[in-house]
Amino acid sequence: MKKTPANIECYKAGAKACSEAKQGAINPHTPESAEARAWDNGYLDRQKRSASRDAGEYQKRDTLHLKGLSSAENTDSLKSENTKM
After folding, report:
1. Each residue of 47-82: pLDDT tens digit?
2. Is the CA virtual torsion 31, 36, 42, 45 positive or negative?
3. How far apart are CA 13 and CA 15, in angstroms?
4. What is the tally of structural domains in the chain?
5. Domain of 30, in residue numbers
6. How far, in Å, CA of 39 to CA of 59, rounded?
7. Nearest to 14, CA basis, from 50, 40, 51, 35
8. What ranges in the chain are assigned the alpha helix state H?
9. Is the pTM of this model over 0.70?
10. Which of 15, 23, 25, 66 could form a disulfide with 42 if both were Cys (CB 3.0 to 4.6 A apart)?
């Protein structure tokens, strides 16, 4: 897809709709148009980014739980492990 100013704005609008947690947000553009594809791409990219960020938080929490660390100890412990690798 060609990056035109209109497509960039549509992409940003789709990402914003996703980040504002608008469940079932409806693409306002004509189906099958370049603008509709850009909006969908922005929405889906933001959704994927949010999902991967959430997965990282869950993984970190699970690791801390398995190690029996409290929330006050977690930052120091993870930092020291990351520097050892």
Report:
1. 888 877 766 665 666 566 566 655 545 555 555 555
2. positive
3. 5
4. 1
5. 5-84
6. 30
7. 40
8. 5-19, 34-67, 71-84
9. no
10. 15
